[in-house]
Task: structure prediction
Amino acid sequence: MADDNANEIWVNVTEAAEITGYNRQYIKKLISKLWLIEESQRGVRIKKRSSGFDIWLPDLLVYLAAQGRRGPYTKNDQTGP
Result:
């Protein structure tokens, strides 16, 4: 199935944020922290590029799910008076 293969891709920080629903700055900060951890211990495959980072999407999704957080925060939809 095409959907199964679609998740097995390298993505940049912006694409990772769009797919996961997390804020781009949060993903960027997370990947920057993970980059400092030894590769065998970080849990997410990351490639550093001159333009930023490439992230293995399946690893990122598993990592975010394992964190036990309730998920990405969304802005409350507030209407003006």
In short: The longest helix spans residues 24-35. The beta strands are 10-12, 46-49, 52-56. The chain has a mean pLDDT of 83.
